[in-house]
Amino acid sequence: MKTARDTWYMVVRQARNLMREPIWIVMMVIQPMVWLILYGQLFKNVTRLGGFGTGSYITFLAPAIVIMNGFFGATWSGMAMINDLEHKVIERFLATPASRVSLVLSQIVRSAITAGLQGIIILIVSIALGVSIRTGALGWIVIVLTGMLWMQETARFNPVDWGVRAAREVVLPGTAWSTVGWYLLFLLLLTVLTTAWATWAFRAYQRTL
Amino acid sequence: METIVVDGLRKAYGDVQALDGVSFEVREGEVFGLLGPNGAGKSTTVRVLVTLTSPDTGAAFVGGHDVRTHQAAVRRTIGYVPQDSGVDQFGTGRENLMLQGRVQDMAGRDLRNRVEELLGLVGIADAADRIVRTYSGGMRRRLDIALGLVHRPKVLFLDEPTTGLDPEARVAMWEEVSRLARAESLTILLTTHYLEEADQLADRLAIVSQGRVAVEGTPTALKAGLRGDAVHVEVADDRLDAARGVLATVGAPPETTIGERTLVARVDHGGTALPHILSALDAAGIPVESVAVSRPSLDDVYLHFTGRDFQAEDRAA
């Protein structure tokens, strides 16, 4: 309960700080649009090579952009954490009864919300550009969810690929829901593991103070 | 009654023994100073007491709670104002205070009133809704202290409260701290490497040197414990040993040396002894560069109890 409450307060803090820099909000909306429209047009003919499962390259591209966004968003949340560490904001909270997990979790939640909102915008634009999501509303949710869950980076397994595959599966013809389910489960597990790992690393860091 | 009890704290970082058996006690309602040069172990001691790190051995209690086993209770009892600010620079002063209160489980009208009260108390009410990045150094430090006080702690830890402030803001901060200590009936533990600050603020102090408490007492008692006045005599560097011998013959045997050319002797009356010292040195043909007589200061106390010069040690760290 305390963890949930503290996480919420921390998310509000970060969201408020973000709102104060409208340039970031603009960047967050414009950047994926540039990718989507620029690459969508640039490589539009690549689907003639075949093997894309669709004749429309932008249909193939859109879900990948959503996931890529989640990836960059997660990197930024890491940056926000480093900034807080450097300015001893974290240290100040560590000397209070603030929940330890909330310090890590709030970064993840904030970046998930951002990635989710961006995902929705990207999908709206893609539809305007002629992408039709074969699985309808449920497919939407899956795409946005994979984008949100993709929060941390591990080089060995490629979770970006899990996300892209799951997201594509719902867009392209012949959706295999079991594939989608497995990839989502992997991502969820990964998120839990990396959160636990980050919290543990945090405690280890505290011992070195 | 003792609010803080520290007993034989030891902690090593690799080969560096940061704490080498620190012990002291702080009574309820007093302002206690940990004085020492940079690297003496003051901040590490505070970090142990505010549960940010744990000692290798030794025990410490704050407000009766063991800092190793009852961390949550300690964290509710204390306010901690770290050396490096720790405010969210992109938020306003009020937002920072509200969040600090919330993680301390305060809410609603109680929290809002307390924040309002503190903003007034530390004198930043006019800047409450400005982004902290636009604050001056002194204002930021005031906010830091307010952050430590939101949840009405019984004990406040101030780690180097005036480092980085200009002399004027420093004096203002001293007044502030004294006033807050009374207004909030706080027990305060502050660390400082300014002798003057410890002298001004602390009811009692402990001089920390190389991970240990060298001496403990009220500033007045510590200074009174030193006999008479200090005489500093600066001579040409190759004549130091000769000068030492000369001083011993006129009843002012040097206690210590500062740097390459200054001898420090302790005499009952500086004014009476000085002419004898100077004429003896003159007779021996030793040129005197400068000479100074001073009433005992905490500088002298430090020098006396640790055998080292405070300023030199502070710079070296």
Structural summary, described in words:
Chain A has eight helices and no strands. By secondary structure, chain A is mostly helical. Chain A has one domain. In chain A, helix 5 crosses helix 6. The longest helix of chain A has 31 residues. Chain A is elongated. About 3% of the residues of chain A have low confidence. With 317 residues, chain B is an alpha/beta fold. In chain B, a hairpin with a 2-residue loop joins strand 1 and strand 2. In chain B, helix 3 crosses helix 4 and helix 3 packs parallel to helix 5. Chain B is elongated, with a radius of gyration of 23 Å. Chains A and B meet through helix 1 and helix 4 of A and helix 2 and helix 3 of B.
Can you lay out the helices and strands and say which pair or pack?
The complex is a heterodimer of chains A (209) and B (317).
Chain A: H1 2-19, H2 22-42, H3 57-86, H4 89-94, H5 100-128, H6 136-149, H7 159-171, H8 177-207
Chain B: E1 2-13, E2 16-27, E3 31-35, H1 42-49, E4 57-62, E5 65-66, H2 71-77, E6 78-81, H3 93-103, H4 108-121, H5 137-149, E7 155-159, H6 167-183, E8 187-192, H7 195-201, E9 204-209, E10 212-217, H8 219-224, E11 229-235, H9 240-249, E12 254-258, E13 262-267, H10 270-283, E14 288-294, H11 298-306, H12 310-316
Parallel strand pairs in B: 3-8, 3-9, 6-7, 7-8
Antiparallel strand pairs in B: 1-2, 1-4, 4-5, 9-10, 11-13, 11-14, 12-13
Helix pairs in contact in B: 3-4, 3-5
